[in-house]
Hints:
By secondary structure, the protein is an alpha/beta fold.
Amino acid sequence: MLSIDEFGRLFENLQHSAWRLLTLDRYDVTDSERVDFENWQRTGRASERAGEPWLRMIGDYARRGVPFARTHVFPGSDRLTPYCEFVLESYEANDAAGEAVSIAGRAAHPELGQLETDFWLLDERVVVIEYDDDRHYTGAYLATGRQAEQLRTQRELATRWAVPLARYKAERRRRQPA
């Protein structure tokens, strides 16, 4: 397992790209996220996130031509978990910072059901992110060999069926009853 510091250092000096696959419909929120989540539950709006270190890093890489992207695989129905509803709003800040956020729906594309592992592709490195049954982060490790290749293939599957965040939200609004 990578220590938190080792994991964080993998985001330093990226040369080519960073891409993340998220496969869960809910994640345990950190203490700082909990405040944002609770605010969203009360107001229906995501908290202002401009200036966060993570968003500044995404913007810095974008200006250097190193793309950041993520695909979140949702259950696929129009009835999302509260967490998925929250991140749909929260991802707006990531998108504005320069991260290409896309959403893929399992209901519309059952083959996405095989995507069960969260991971980052950081240049050529594949970093698996692990969670327990309660969706708490438990650690990360570098995948190698066959596992790394399988996860790279999963990226192709996820991105094949994913749509950009703005399009996903617009299509979802059109399907919502008035």
